[in-house]
Here is the input.
Amino acid sequence: MDQNTAHNIIHLVTGEADPAVLKNENILLQLTEYINELIASDFPSLVQMLYRLDIPENILKENLQLNAGEDTARIIAGMIIKRQLQKIELRKKFTHDNDVSNEEKW
Here is the structure.
């Protein structure tokens, strides 16, 4: 995978993506491929990315143990997408700018 494609995938997954885009199987496959590359050639960058995306280490380890024998990169990619979808839902739930008058806004 070329650097530009990898950058686009990470940007898509970590940005303000449409949940429908994140649920697309093609995104999961591309992200899995990128994570496999990081595992093989730049593991510290993978660890940094997981930290930045707020993927809890204990949950990651638990998922890897529960799914031993399965594709590690696919498990990690699924966790990233799941976490990003959670963030999108939390933003929707706690963003109430339309409900607050201009006088009450800081």
The mean pLDDT is 82. DSSP finds six helices and no strands in the chain. Helices lie at 3-14, 19-22, 25-41, 43-52, 57-66, 72-94.
